[in-house]
Amino acid sequence: MLSILLVAAALALFYGGDLSKFQPAIEWVKKLDPKKFLAIGLVLAAVLLMPRGQQSDEPTPAPDTGPLVLRGTFLGESASSDAGLIGALCDELADEIEYDGNQPEAERYLKTGVAVDELRKAARVLRCRGISIGDRQPQARDIIAAYLDKAVGTDGGPLTPESRSAWVTAYREVGRIATDAAQ
After folding, report:
1. Are 164 and 101 in contact (CB under 8 A)?
2. How far apart are CA 87 and CA 85, in angstroms?
3. How far apart are the first and last CA of the chain?
4. Cα–Cα distance between 1 and 7 in angstroms, integer?
5. Over the stretch 26-75, which tens digit does the pLDDT of each residue have?
6. DSSP letters of the chain?
7. Mean pLDDT of the residues in the chain
8. Which residue, among 113, 92, 83, has the nearest Cα to 171 in the 3D structure?
9. Is the Cβ–Cβ distance between 167 and 152 less than 8 Å?
10. Is the pLDDT of residue 160 over 60?
11. How far is residue 173's CA from residue 124's CA, in Å, rounded to a whole number?
12. In this structure, are residues 157 and 112 in contact, taking their beta carbons and an 8 Å threshold?
């Protein structure tokens, strides 16, 4: 109702306070049966109070980007060999993380997410002789990094059986998709 009053006041000001132009509307309102007037008021109130979209304090979840796709992201003369190398490296990382998890807890080398990342860095240095395939294949690197962040997160803390399993699954998926992209 406040909105209606504000609109009426704005119209009155717009027309310089001359309400004679609204005389037919005023006469029509005066002739309305009180029940009809109340019904119109209730409909207007319902329209004004109708929610226009809910806003939540919770962040909107990131859209699911779908399956990992690397085909066509490895470019240049070394594209096939780079994809094959990434595939083999990721398969080996998955095997090592899984093997380590099957050892008695006191004998495990990989106890944190940071240790898993250090394993990846060491494997790259040893297998690729320090050459960064990611520098040569930035499009594939960025897609793989986004996939791993989504699949395993960025927490460098202690590995739980669930997080270890997530690492193994993620690296196997990257390995499979990269190997497919190599062909």
Report:
1. yes
2. 5
3. 69
4. 10
5. 676 677 777 776 667 666 666 666 665 554 455 544 445 457 889 989 99
6. -HHHHHHHHHHHHHTTT-GGGGHHHHHHHHHS-HHHHHHHHHHHHHHHHS------SSPPPPPP--S---TTTS-STTHHHHHHHHHHHHHHHHHHHHHHHTS-GGG-S--BHHHHHHHHHHHHHHHHTT--HHHH-HHHHHHHHHHHHHHH-S--SBPPHHHHHHHHHHHHHHHHHHHHHH-
7. 81
8. 92
9. yes
10. yes
11. 18
12. yes
Q: Which amino acid is at 7?
A: V
| 104-128 per-position pLDDT tens digit | 999 999 999 999 989 988 988 888 8
Residue 85 pLDDT > 90, yes or no? yes
Q: How far apart are alpha carbons 167 and 183 in whole angstroms?
A: 25
Token pair belonging to 65: 């980007």
Residue whose structure tokens are 């997160």: 153
Q: How many angstroms separate the CA atoms of 141 and 93, rounded? A: 16
Phi, psi at 5, each rounded to 5°: -65, -40
Residue 144: pLDDT band by 50, 70, 90 thresholds? very high
Bridge partners of residue 68, in order along the sequence? none
As beta bridge partners, residue 158 has: 112
